[in-house]
Fold:
Amino acid sequence: MWRATELTAVDERGMTKYFEEFEPPEGVKAELLRGVVVMTASPDIVHNLIVADVQDQIPRQYFARLQTMDVDIVGEASEPVPDLVVVERDVVPGSGRPLPCRLVTMVVEVSSKSSVHQDYVVKRSIYAAGRVPAYLVLDPIMAKCVLLTKPAGDGEDADYLSQEITKFGNSLPLEILGLELDTSEFGTFAGVRPHRYP
Structure:
């Protein structure tokens, strides 16, 4: 079974070029996070059902809901692959990858035992540095949603100034999308040790 693996490069620009040509093994997701290639196994059914549930609630006539789409973060040696990327339909490019971060309205990550630190710390800073307006962490370990908005700062010092936590089962206002997210069907992981993030 694959676990998160890190390969570090001395030159981050060289790592970005390497990553563009990198082909991970089948069933493995690879992301470039600040010059580090992070590989994780395919997600489980709880994860996939949450992503599908969120996607179904976002109106497709206004937004493209993209899975496994890598995002180019300006000024960073980073190409994260969020579980869901939400983009206004009228600004979606006709083709190509990665998707420029300036086009992104919201990114969604569903945390797992192996991704908690990356989702709550590393990616929080990376998405804020890329000025992604909203970052939603859905956490089936702790049965909560963490909505981060108002990105500020640069590089590793970047962060979101606003944080709203909602327990699974309650509705979550997503003003940026003009909707209330119903979390009542979100599943949780059994037998996973609790964590202390955010």
